[in-house]
Amino acid sequence: MRFIYYDTETTGISPAKDKITEIAAYDAGRDLTFSELVNPGMPIPLESSQITGITDDMVKDKPLFAEVGPRFLEFCEGDVVLIAHNNDAFDVKFLQNEFDFADIPFPEFKYIDTLKWARKYRPDLPRHALQYLREVYGLEANNAHRALDDVIMLRNLFSLMIDDLPPKTVYNLSQQKGPRLRKMPFGKHRGVALDKVPKSYLTWLASSGALDKPDNAELKDALSTII
After folding, report:
1. DSSP assignment of 198-224, as one string?
2. pTM of this prediction?
3. Half-sphere exposure of residue 148: CA atoms within 13 angstroms, side-chain side
4. 96 and 183 share one domain
5. How many CB atoms lie under 10 A from the CB of residue 84?
6. Strands 2-10, 80-84: parallel, antiparallel or unpaired by DSSP?
7. pLDDT digits (tens, 9 = 90+) for 108-150
8. Which residue range(s) make up the domain with 226?
9. How many CB atoms lie within 10 A of CB 156?
10. How many structural domains is the chain composed of?
């Protein structure tokens, strides 16, 4: 079993309507990297370019995902576990949609979501964003929001988080479901038990679309029994 860390940059946050603009991966077992810009076939919104640094001009002559996708699959051959931060609510959803759109069969990969791992095993931390965890573990700043830089950062970070646990143990632990989110993770009611947060505030969150953001998938699931 080999760990392959990966990351995607995209035109936005909706897997249903946005597209991948960059995909990168690091194969820890073979010490190999994969990194390609992708022509999304649509304009990149200014706000996305401001975050990732990827512009229309940078991708206009790059291949479409239909060409990049098979090369990514070839890189990920064998008994591998794909690892990404916020994988379950973001990266893997973009991958699935891109492969479906390109009419390319998408393998049944194994996955580890390091955001969920951090929330489960570091509940003492107030936040679990990649850059916040980087600071907590004393790692040097990287070129955040470029895929390969984030991949290398994630590999270094997760290596510290799992210490010397063997890959199979790490994967098995990652598949064990932890307790459902019980406290409000942000906002004016941060730290308050979810069942004690005013229903009017929770309803407002839902109607505002805040719960549809990938980062709030766990909160949306926890609130499903409340609102």
Report:
1. -HHHHHHHHHHTGGGSGGGHHHHHHHT
2. 0.81
3. 7
4. no
5. 25
6. parallel
7. 999 999 999 998 888 888 889 999 999 999 998 877 667 899 9
8. 179-227
9. 16
10. 2
Q: Same domain for 116 and 210?
A: no
pLDDT tens digits for range 70-96:
999 999 999 999 999 999 999 999 999
Q: Are residues 192 and 100 in the same domain?
A: no
Residues, the chain, total?
227
- What are the backbone dihedrals phi and psi of residue 88, each rounded to the nearest 5 degrees, phi first? -65, -30
Do 168 and 200 belong together in one domain?
no
Residues 6+ positions from 12 with CB-CB distance below 8 Å: 18, 45, 48
- 195 and 166: one domain? no
Closest CA relative to residue 72, chosen from 104, 110, 113: 104
Q: Give the containing element (helix H, strand E) for 37.
A: strand 32-37
DSSP 194: G
